[in-house]
Amino acid sequence: MKPLEIYVHIPFCVKKCNYCDFLSAPASREARQGYIESLCGQIRSYADAAKAYGVVSIFIGGGTPSLLTGSQIAAVFGAVRETFSVEAEAEITIEMNPGTVSREKLKAYRDVGINRLSIGLQSADDEELKTLGRIHTFADFLETYRMARAEGFGNINVDLMSAIPGQTVESYTRTLRRTAALSPEHISAYSLIIEEGTPFFALYGEGAGGHDEYGRLPLPDEDSERQMYYDTKRILGEYGYHRYEISNYAKPGYACRHNLGYWNRTEYLGFGDGAASLMDHKRWVTGGTPEELSREDEMEEYMFLGLRKMEGVSKTEFKRLFDVSMDSVYGKVLADMEDKDLLEQAGDFVRLTEKGIDVSNYVMSGFLL
What we know:
Blueprint: E1 2-10, H1 29-44, H2 47-50, E2 53-62, H3 70-83, E3 85-96, H4 103-112, E4 116-122, H5 126-132, H6 138-150, E5 156-162, H7 169-180, E6 186-191, H8 199-204, H9 222-238, E7 242-245, E8 248-250, H10 257-263, E9 268-271, E10 276-279, E11 282-285, E12 291-292, H11 295-306, E13 313-314, H12 315-322, H13 326-339, E14 343-346, E15 349-352, H14 354-358, H15 360-365
Parallel strand pairs: 1-2, 1-9, 2-3, 3-4, 4-5, 5-6
Antiparallel strand pairs: 6-8, 7-8, 10-11, 11-12, 13-15, 14-15
């Protein structure tokens, strides 16, 4: 059976955070229940296509999936397991936010086979959390984290964010150390991006004007943001975390298999509003028309997704997938990026250098055919 990943989107939240441009919004209990019933029907509609696949990972994302009741989560997993063959060792993750989790919900997660939690902390500083529009405090996070450990969860990710308005290098360092000291198995560390259509864009986006004269908290300057970026790798390395992807760090054996599947272009099915799918050389968003991917499209994706991994992309695998050598397609780009010390070769792999990681978007744009 071919490997398949499943993503399930739960678009509900208590309130939109000031930086969030994801498909999410508050909703009534009735709306949530109606969505779950529709979602289960959507999952079951893939019964025929599912026969050729074995599910290797499931990710329940949002929004805030932990807003759902235990019975609603059970209904979703009932539909998945009725329709798909889920491998016994599959990695099964649910995202959650502090303040929306109880011991009963955690027990329900265990009952349906969830074996990995992803907790959205973002910052260990309560003032920074208020600035972001989060509904929780650091104390709330600690309570959620300790409950999860008490319920036997041994694979936990914590999301962190840098370049928050008002954040300093020192406050970010405290967040890194306070989080790493808890020894979660995985830490995702992202820099804030000001997205159009968010409250932050109105304050800090293009054309919003200066911030200090309007009493807005200043964004960290470029030097501070760069220092936060370097401190992430250095400090997490002190605590035994290995950087395996541009924004992701893990203890040995705990790299997120679901995310690696995306970067390796494993086929995946997305269920729920706005969820994307990749199957049989086609890509589509729920409710949309599948787009046939050309060979060039797939080569491009293999390169710019694979280069997010610290190990890089394999020349042997490229040849196996596309029946041509990587050098015959990208030789000029590879040579140019190596001359600029942005890429390097390590055996069969081509990977970003430290300098290349700093300008990764520029490097990856070079592989568009």
